[in-house]
Amino acid sequence: MHSIARLVQRSVILALLVGCGRPEAVRIGDGYPRDESLPFLEAIRPAVESSGVLISTWSVGGDPRITIQLNTEQASLFADDPTVVAVVGHTGSREALLAAAVYNAREVPHVVPNATSGLLGQSGPWTFTLVPSDSVEGAFIADYALDSLRGSRLGVLYLGDEYGIGLRDGVRAALRRRGTDFVDASMIPSDWCYAEPAATIHRAIINASLRRSKPDVVVVTTGSSSGWCTAELIHQANPETWIIFGDGMDGARQVPDLTPRVNPGRIRGVEFWAASTDSMSRAFVDRVQGKMKQPLGASHALQYDAYMLLAAAIHEAGPDRRAIRRWLESLGVSREPWQGVTGPIAFNRPRSEILRMSGPTVSVP
Hints:
Blueprint: H1 2-20, E1 27-30, H2 38-49, E2 54-56, H3 69-80, E3 84-88, H4 93-106, E4 110-112, E5 127-129, H5 134-148, E6 154-159, H6 162-177, E7 184-188, H7 198-213, E8 217-221, H8 224-237, E9 242-245, E10 254-256, E11 267-271, H9 279-288, H10 298-317, H11 321-330, E12 338-340, E13 343-345, E14 356-358, E15 362-364
Parallel strand pairs: 1-2, 1-3, 3-4, 4-5, 6-7, 6-8, 8-9, 9-11, 10-15
Antiparallel strand pairs: 11-14, 12-13
């Protein structure tokens, strides 16, 4: 009863601070440069801010997908703001690593929803990840390729960034532990592969890799910007080749009309969450789906969990950066794991139980 009273007291104080618009208003920094995903943030904002915690949005000008240094600048702005007591993000592994250096130096709690780079675990005690590292995901992919698909000749096509290289190395390490290796490993461009000259470069690299190695399974560690055309080029060469996407494709459930020549039955993708019938999942989907122009994926559920987790930490520990970090560290140790939409969350072990493999089910325009 005492803990409930303390929680209510802190909630009232936070609400009063926010309502008065005073500088002491408590905020969580949003480490995402929102454009197409802005409707998602607006859909979850009422749930987060109903607890008396505001969301502080991205304010640095420029396109961080082109100038990734902007992530460092934005992280510095959040760290300089005493009302920002924690941050969610940033977008991917490279962006999150750049920001993590700032947050750990400036002692700002930093929850990373989606990034898998194992280097994040070495960033410092202020960074907390919600998904398994690339080594854990890599082992899951390797086991699935060998045991479920009965693959014997595995190739990999990867982006040359922290995500693509990290996942490539994670799968390779797991394969070597089982006495095998990739028959070929080729880096593909990060440029959108439906436009020239990137389209020609993609085609040349992928066709050369397939001719050299004749794989029966190809692991693709990229995101949706180049993932589907990579799959199409693989299946143009051999529609029976298995394709396994890493989590960057969010389970590879939606096959766009731009790729009519893929064989959906031979595609699988790692995902960390799928909507289910439990009450938390239904409430989350009901809250968000109406404002989105696309189906909800694991990336949405993980971001939502990150915000609600920090809101809970602020309520229970108070609006102090060090106290919030200690609260997060206690999950699974002196406190029970916190229950989110994606499952129980604790930071004393990898969340390997959220790994799952899915395949395309829906075609979208």
